[in-house]
Amino acid sequence: MTKNRPNYVSTTNACKLCKPLGACLAFKGIEGTVPFLHGSQGCATYMRRYIISHYNEPVDIASSSLSEKHAVYGGGPNLKTGLTNVTEKYRPRMIGIATTCLTETIGDDVSMYLDQYQKENRKNKEMPDFVNVSTPSYSGTHMEGFHEAVYQVVSQRAAGGSATRTINLLPGFVSSADYRWLMEVMADFGLDCTMLPDLSATMDGPALLEYEKVPTGGTPLAAIKAMGRSRATIEFGRTVADHESAGAVLAEKFEVGNYRLGLPIGIEETDRFFNLLCELSGRDIPEKYEGERGRLVDAYVDGHKYIFGKKAIVYGEEDLVVGISAFLAEIGIFPVLCASGGTSGRLGKSIVEVTGDILATQPEIHEGMDFFDIAEMAEALEPDLIVGHSKGYPLARKMNIPLIRVGFPIHDRVGGQRVLHLGYNGAQQLFDTITNAVIAQKQADSSVGYSYM
Amino acid sequence: MDIELLRNNFRKFDKLGLDMETTALKDREDQIHIKGETPLNIVCNKDSLAGAVSQRACVFCGSRVVLYPIADALHLVHGPIGCAVYTWDIRGALSSGAELHRLSFSTDLQEIDVIFGGEKKLRKALIELIDRHGPKAAFVYSTCIVGIIGDDLDAVCRTVEQEKGIPVIPVKSEGFKGNKRAGYQAACDAMARLIGTGDTSDISRFSLNILGDFNLAGEIWMIRDYYERMGIQVVANITGDGRVDDIRRAHGASLNVVQCSGSTMHLANMIEERYGVPSMRVSYFGIEDMSEALYDIARFFRKQFPDDPEAGAIMERTRELVREEVQALVPQLKKYRKALAGKKAAIYVGGSFKAFSLVKAFRLVDMRVVLVGSQTGTKEDYEELEAITDPGTIIVDDSNPLELTSFLKEKSVDVFVGGVKERPIAYKLGIGFCDHNHERKEALAGFAGMLNFAREVYSSVMSPVWRFVPRK
């Protein structure tokens, strides 16, 4: 499985982002929360730019704007000033503080600063809640940052008490359309649900008359507090490390049972999710979803011949790569290379879990890859298409094969936040897009140019 | 802050009908000015306020912006992955040949490197990448963390330079050591190490370097074409479509023509000090400033070489060029001018020199500028803005999303000119937008650029979609 793995010292065109960015994204999905980076000004500005280019939504991330003297004498005073300014100006319900490589390396103790700050401001009734997470970008990718933030939110904010019927849902990082879809599913099963985080509205909001300092939406803080009293947790992510699992924290601290699933991408992984929902709700799959599944199977049949045996390169966040690989395998496309910049150590095992009974041979599966490595391997693999975020475009262009845009970021198209990946309907959209891309390529390459299939 | 200034500040907010508390943090009041209300007393070039969500970036960003378009150099970011990955091919700086600048190289420092130092990894990465790509030079950018762990970049660069026989230049761009301006300076210091090392024997006396144009959407090609039509040799593009060998002999030119002076004036000054090459500030944006730039240059050569008949010929060709371009442009602008007359514009850009030109360009299409600001303007820059804007115009330094939204709404702006971080602010409020930053894909410089600019503004302002937004 690890043959032909390129091994270079330098990284060229990374296939990952840095840890604090993931934490900021997670904080963006919590009610009334402003993400705050403890570091130099550039981090916040770069990440804002990067996130905005995908979502086309305002993304305010505050910064403690450390300068040289703070780097020498400690960033505590600037952190506190920054918190006061954000509080005054944004009136947030919560401030989510993530560290950066600068403040981690100078050894700033954010928890201690926060304790001091809260003591100093005890009489101030306007004080928001705080959550802090350690996210040095020299260890892990944006996905570790995302999971760490969710983990810390749960660890620091969830409380126990009398049990409720609520189900906790921890989907990981998916599109705004995916979060919307998940809430709909839970409601259709009659399940009361706390989904953490929830970027459905905060990162895909309507045009407004009055600018909202902090966008409406996100997981309610009260609901987060009650997560320790829920009856179960569903956590997506086959590659999430146990020490980053917020579901595991809830299980350990409050004995809330944790069900770990892969992202429900494609029929098989979605079936697993729906089976669990049937079990938890005591209901059958709602007719609406039976219908969606039925139409999807019909579409798979209608389109199967156009794509059978095609070869795809899949890259991106590890759990997305697992889900997409499962989906590709079940529609008859062979994922010749599954690559990620992440290094969970679980990518290979997870892909085997979801594709093992379909694929006769296992694909090349590699962690810690960058786009130079991917391109170097691509030549020999002769792929027909590429599935991943927009940073694979140069490769697709060079090889003259279609790029199917999924995940984050999608910087060269509109509507990245509205790409639906999850569930039968998500698979339906992916299937149509992929099949049509293959047909379009064949049509364009043809000397005849049929106007029918 | 003295009492008078405080009172003035309160007055200006009363006048605007803005809620003091929600709009400007008290410490930022002196970075906002309203023309005609009080004498200009704007404070600028100070560190961003913690927690204010500044639109600014960092030292690294400043260096990266300036050096980025040098297309045949290796740009290696020494640090954890973030700084490199967020600057991967994000700018529209085109190259006519090599495209090494569009790749993102990083040492991708890990925890173990932070503990034991990153010098060895840097050395290996440099050698690996130089062997792979054969660049003409390598720039090695330091990031925040390198400044803290104390890697000796100079030493590593020096040994690799000796080993590989190309210039390997450290860029002192630790993010926290100042703002974007400090990064410009670090970039200029890095380039200064190249200048003076190339052969200048075939350079004409009628020659110049283009500084501070980054060849966004091919702009520097238009500008070069103008100079060549005037009969002037362009020695080095600094840095749009830039080449290491050209920069090495930049000291052989007779004149440095500096646009975006915030970023490269420092380099022009260094070249003047060391080699006696004078410099001139210009703007290539809008008909007035573009024409003025070409005439200024022609006048310079006439003054410099009064006895050379070629100097007179250059002036003649310049007149001809401007006449031709303007004659072609003006009739095409009419349609836009008619449609846009009286509409209101807001400007928030990185450098204030661009803001001057934008104010004039909007005037050319009969629009009113009601807000203008920059991330990194100087006192003198704001004085000039004060001089060229209408009374009531808000002038602001280092602004932030909340401030900008309240100004946009208050002034009921029709189009906002800014960069990618400003775009969603405008759109969320249902306001038109024109991208005038480094990511743009439309050439906005030169005579043709003025037409593109008018078209860009027109295609946002005149779109029928605004009828659906809540604002209308």
Describe the structure.
The complex is a heterodimer of chains A (453) and B (472). Chain A has 17 helices and 14 strands. Chain A is of the alpha/beta class. Chain A has 3 domains: 19-145, Nitrogenase molybdenum iron protein domain (Rossmann fold, 3-Layer(aba) Sandwich); 167-281, Rossmann fold, CATH 3.40.50; 301-445, Rossmann fold (3-Layer(aba) Sandwich), CATH 3.40.50.1980. In chain A, helix 16 (393-399) links the parallel strand 13 (385-388) and strand 14 (403-405). In chain A, helix 7 (142-157) runs parallel beside helix 10. The longest helix of chain A has 23 residues, at 423-445. In chain B, 47% of the residues lie in helices and 14% in strands. Chain B is an alpha/beta fold. Chain B has 3 domains: 1-43 and 341-440, Rossmann fold, CATH 3.40.50.1980; 59-185, Nitrogenase molybdenum iron protein domain (Rossmann fold), CATH 3.40.50.1980; 207-327, Rossmann fold. Chain B has helices at residues 3-16, 20-23, 59-67, 81-85, 111-116, 119-133, 144-149, 153-164, 180-192, 219-230, 244-248, 261-275, 287-304, 309-340, 352-364, 379-388, 401-410, 423-428, 446-461; strands at 32-34, 73-78, 105-106, 137-142, 168-171, 207-213, 233-239, 255-258, 279-281, 344-349, 368-374, 394-397, 415-418, 432-435. In chain B, helix 3 (59-67) packs across helix 9 (180-192), helix 9 runs parallel beside helix 12 (261-275) and helix 13 (287-304) runs antiparallel to helix 14. Strand 1 (11-12) of chain A pairs antiparallel with strand 3 of chain B, so a sheet runs across the interface.
In short:
The complex is a heterodimer of chains A (453) and B (472). Chain A contains 17 helices and 14 strands.
Comma- or semicolon-separated keywords:
heterodimer; A: 453 residues; alpha/beta; Rossmann fold; 3 domains; 5-stranded parallel sheet; 4-stranded parallel sheet; 17 helices; globular; B: 472 residues; 6-stranded mixed sheet; 19 helices; 14 strands; 47% helix; disordered N terminus
